[in-house]
Amino acid sequence: MTTPSLYHEALRPQFHFTAARNWLNDPNGLVHHNGEYHLFFQHNPHGLEWGNMTWGHAVSTDLLRWRQLPDAIEPDAEGTIFSGSAVVDTLDTGGFGKGAETAIVALFTVARPDSAGIKSPYVQSLASSTDCGRSWTRYAGNPVIPFIAEGNRDPKVVWHAPTRKWVMTLYLKDDSFAFFNSPDLKNWRHLHDMTVPGTSECPDFFEMPILGGDGGSKWVWTAADGRYLVGSFDGHRFTTETGLLQAEYGRNSYAVQTFSDILPEDGRRIQIAWMREGKYPGMPFNQQMSIPCELQLRSTPSGPRLTKLPVREIESLHEPGHHWANLALQPGANPLSELKGDLWHIRAEIEVGDAAQVGFRIRGEAAVFDAREGRISCLGASAPMKARDARIRLELLIDRTSVELFGNDGEVALTSCFLPSADDHDLELFTTGPPARVISMEAYPLRSVWP
Ligand code: FRU
């Protein structure tokens, strides 16, 4: 048997990011600069399991076709490189720019060896690049934030225009986080702490316009698992106006981060998650990223809520599709019985009627809406979801080792990994109980991003 070439292995995701070889976890330093998206990532360059944490690096112009570059930030005598973020310092507040070359500045956690006998003596440090992220220089004044609490890590930075300051949210320990600000990315002032029971690690913080309703904007704070708070921020204090909210319910979504510096004329807030705990037996790589998703903050009767949907760029991978409209869906019938394949983008609007359940079966694994329970479930995880005017909308992105399911235009998302049986390439749309009706449905086979 010949060994398949890199990126063509049996369990290699075909449109999700994986490291060419070895381990990855959190997305880091997501930033857009000079027409390129940068995806740095927690990487073990030397093995298939977590360790030797290094910032791996990939670039893309469309969020899908990633080209992996040499590792960007590597461990040294100070320690290994944990998660963090990157920003474009357009106003050169830090003085790291070089002539016309604007600096990209990365802030990350240096996990120092445990020499002092303190558990996890982490500090926050900075590096800058003036060649579009290809090479990085550590700041001589590192660390920019000394050790403050046992778990302090994962700095995420955003520009706050009204106060002309950078704002950082940082994980501290247990379920507590901190906010800082800085005029120059080098000198940080501790603003306040925040406890968010049940959450930990990898915070993110950004302002979003409210769509629908009376407009305006709110600040959104997310934890590693994607659960979020909505509130107001005056440059000094984040005042939460909600309890902890949830849009993502899948089994394998963690360490979410959004891109910085997406151009105002684009204006999207795009998030990537590490699909934690996927299994890739026999592969030269381990772990994958989620599809980049666009977040929106929508006005609802309960207040502004996040929705999450795959970025529209996914349509560039569509092969000619199959379309259905106004189709009665009878128990036992499968309108998708002719379709075979592993890579799909499916969108459907279904009138549930009195059906007990309506769902898809993907290579044997069900993604089901249960009308009586008002829940949608997929691969062992489930989310509350209600039919609207007796209809539901489902969107599915299926890759070789993952299913991402989005319900009711992204009100809920279930991001999950699977390891389907190698000889099952079937798709099924099914109902139980009285018939349902497909108002409209489209199913597109997807091309691989790998030539
Ligand atoms: C989250 C995390 C971060 C840390 C990194 C280390 O998955 O534990 O808190 O910076 O991974 O790889």
Q: What this model shows, in words?
A:
The chain has 451 residues and is mostly beta strands. It has two domains: 22-313, Glycosyl hydrolase domain, family 43 (Tachylectin-2, Chain A); 318-445, Exo-inulinase, domain 1 (Jelly Rolls, Sandwich). It is 0% helix and 47% strand. The strands form six sheets. Strands 13, 14, 15, 16, 17, 18, 20 and 21 form an eight-stranded mixed sheet that branches. A six-stranded antiparallel sheet has the order 22-32-23-28-29-30, with no helix packed on it. The protein is globular. It starts with 21 loop residues before the first strand and ends in a 6-residue tail after the last strand. It binds beta-D-fructofuranose. Beta-D-fructofuranose (FRU) is lined by residues 25-26, 42, 53, 82-83, 109, 153-154, 201-202, 224, 255. Residues 25-26, 42, 53, 82-83, 109, 153-154, 201-202, 224, 255 line the site of beta-D-fructofuranose.
Helix/strand layout:
Layout: E1 22-33, E2 36-44, E3 54-60, E4 67-73, E5 80-88, E6 104-111, E7 122-129, E8 137-138, E9 153-160, E10 165-173, E11 176-182, E12 189-195, E13 204-211, E14 217-222, E15 228-233, E16 238-240, E17 254-258, E18 269-274, E19 285-286, E20 293-298, E21 305-310, E22 322-329, E23 344-351, E24 357-362, E25 365-370, E26 375-378, E27 381-384, E28 391-399, E29 402-407, E30 412-417, E31 427-432, E32 436-445
Parallel strand pairs: 1-19, 13-20
Antiparallel strand pairs: 1-2, 2-3, 3-4, 5-6, 6-7, 7-8, 9-10, 10-11, 11-12, 13-14, 14-15, 15-16, 17-18, 18-20, 20-21, 22-32, 23-28, 23-32, 24-25, 24-31, 25-26, 26-27, 28-29, 29-30
Bound molecules: beta-D-fructofuranose.
